[in-house]
Amino acid sequence: MKQLSQFNNQKVLVLGLARSGAAAARLLTKLGAIVTVNDAKPLEDNPGAKSLLAEGIRVICGHHPLELLDEEFSFIVKNPGIPYSNPMLQLAMSKEIPIYTEVELAYLISEAPIVGITGSNGKTTTTTMIENVLNASGVAAHLAGNIGFPASEVAQSVSKNDVLVMELSSFQLMGIEAFKPHIAVITNIMPTHIDYHGSFDNYVKAKWAIQQKMTASDFLVINVNQDLLKTLASTTKATLVPFSTEEVVDGAYLKEGNLYYRQEKIMSVDQLGVPGLHNIENALATIAVAKLFEVSNQTIVNVLSHFGGVKHRLQSIGSIEGVSFFNDSKSTNILATQKALSGFNNENVLLIAGGLDRGNEFDELVEDIKGLKVMILIGQSAPRMIKAAQKANVPYLQAKDVKEATRLAFKTASKGDTILLSPANASWDMYDNFEVRGDEFIATFNELKGV
Predict the structure, then answer these.
(1) Residue ending a domain, choose from 76, 100, 124
(2) I need a surface site. Which of 160, 252, 289, 355 has the fewest CB within 10 A?
(3) Considering all CA atoms of the chain, what is the largest pairwise distance in Å, rounded to the nearest integer?
(4) Binding positions for ATP (predicted)?
């Protein structure tokens, strides 16, 4: 990693722990900063804080004391999940204390160029596809960021001959200043996380920040199916590499069932290892990045044809007696479920859906669910989803949880059918997170299969 002197003897507050906070605290300490960590979780229930204390790092737990900011910190590194409405951050902003996220630190120390991927949907799958293709071509690519590997930790061990493939959330991108990827990918921008950002405009501004420092020597791979992104693309200084499933562009595109890059056929849609229009978009973004790295067509085809998806993101988990099972627990909103359904023939699909009731109706889903074999509905939002099923004239059943829903779906299914868990809702009414929900689906599949 780059040996920086700018943090030596600088007083820094790391606000919020989890893996990224702990990584930032350790990195800053290594760089000579005087670090204080503040986390809301009490010390007795906070093994991460205990580990840092044992390493000699100052930790204050249990609450966020506003008087802590009297210590005149040079800057704050905050956990992405902490909203800017937090009183500590509000006070810091009034004091004009800079607030970053740890991806900024990762950029500053990284010797490796960065491929940064953001978007409302598809960023994890696209990030994984890109990493797989680059590694298969002989490029040493390393996953980092929102995908589960703290960027400031991974960045410490990469060389200039490696590549950091970094998934970036809007929360992380709000905390950057110098950050500049060599290649940035924007998969799409849809209204989401408005509760955090306050407005769609603020959300778009956070996403668009990924390219704010890029120049003509950098590349912006962007989905021009969306008018919003087309308009934004006209304002960037980066070199544009568009991708589209709707028109021929000077980049990656879909034409007559085949994927192309600048008039060169790469592969057919039928060769992709994962279904759905959204995965065609993810593949096109991956192809664009791969060609910028001069990856061979054969390597691209080999990787994308064997790509089985990412866990909980339209993940094929197998079949029993001719019935296929797909785990798409990550689909926590209507758009994600619409994209998942686009890859299947509805008359053979048994859809498990429902979850946290956020007060919204599901009228937008009606056209997408028409023709489904059956819907099995769970969670708080089931009554609202029943209304959508009735409007679509789709038969429905109810279950108490994912396990019961999966068993009920399998009992109802016939050979050639697909059981798809794609909830269109968050999981927090019944499960700690979408991963736990998806794991219950996988576990039930294994029980039914007798594993």
Answers:
(1) 100
(2) 160
(3) 67
(4) 119-125
pLDDT digits 0-9 by tens, 58-97: 999 999 999 999 999 999 999 998 999 999 999 999 999 9
Which residues are annotated binding-site positions for ATP? 119-125
3-state secondary structure of 240: strand
Joined tokens for residue 212: 């704010």
Regarding whether 58 and 109 lie in a shared domain, the answer is no
Distance CA 1, CA 11 (A): 21
Are the C-beta atoms of 141 and 165 separated by less than 8 Å? yes
> Is residue 1 in some structural domain?
no
How many Cβ atoms from other residues are within 10 Å of residue 185's Cβ? 31
Phi first, then psi: give them for residue 322, nearest 5 degrees.
80, 5
Task: Write down the pTM of the prediction.
Answer: 0.81
Element (DSSP H or E) covering residue 440: helix 434-449
Q: Could you list the residue range(s) of the whole structural domain that residue 233 is in?
A: 103-306
- Domain end position, chosen among 256, 280, 306: 306
Binding-site residue positions: 119-125
Residue ranges, the chain, pLDDT below 50: none
Give the pLDDT of residue 309: 77
User: Count of residues for the chain?
Assistant: 451
User: Same structural domain for residues 237 and 262?
Assistant: yes
CA dihedral of 127, 129, 131, 132, whole degrees rounded to 10: 160
Q: Which of 431-451 are b and which e, b meaning 16 or more Cβ less than 10 Å from the residue's Cβ?
A: beebeebbbbbbebbeebeee
171/208 same-domain check: yes
Task: State the amino acid at position 287 in one-letter form.
Answer: I
Count of domains for the chain: 3
